[in-house]
Amino acid sequence: MLEELFESDLAEISQLMNEARSLSNAAKTQSAIILYRQVLSRNPFHTEALNELAELLETAGETDEAKRYRQRIIILQPMKNQHGTPRHDET
After folding, report:
1. Can you give the pLDDT at residue 10?
2. Where do the domains of the chain lie?
3. Three-state DSSP string of 33-52
4. What angle (nearest 5°) sits at the alpha carbon of residue 37, between those of residues 58 and 12?
5. CA triplet 21, 18, 86: central angle to 5 degrees?
6. What pTM was estimated for this model as a whole?
7. Which residues of the chain have pLDDT under 70?
8. Which secondary-structure segment (H or E) carries 24?
9. pLDDT for the residue 70
10. Tally of CB atoms within 10 A around 10
């Protein structure tokens, strides 16, 4: 049951990321920003969403907010795996 919820959440996040990228590519910056924030509300460790959101915010002139997201990326990078979930060190 828990695994199904996790897989469902990953699929939803993937869909939101694809939609956000499409909106960003279509110069619909504010709509893309909303979707990236939705991704981060589901997974605050998703560094790809953090990075893309920071880039859009910077483009939109929100440099202070963009800087805060970039700082989160720096903090999280050593702690997460490629899917944006916390990494468990393998020993």
Report:
1. 87
2. 11-79
3. HHHHHHHHHHCCCCHHHHHH
4. 135
5. 105
6. 0.76
7. 1-6, 78-91
8. helix 2-25
9. 94
10. 15
User: Which residues partner with 71 through β-bridges?
Assistant: none
Angle (nearest 5°) at CA 34 between 2 and 57: 120
Residue 51 in tokens:
């990075």
Buried b (16+ CB within 10 A) or exposed e, 57-74: bbeeebeeebeebbebbe
pLDDT score of 77: 75
| CA distance linking residue 13 with residue 24, whole number of Å | 16
**Are 68 and 51 contacting, i.e. CB atoms less than 8 angstroms apart?**
no
Give the pair of three-digit tokens for residue 15: 């869909």
CA distance 48 to 17: 9
Q: Domain 11-79 sits in which CATH superfamily?
A: Tetratricopeptide repeat domain (1.25.40.10)
Q: What is the CA radius of gyration of the chain?
A: 14
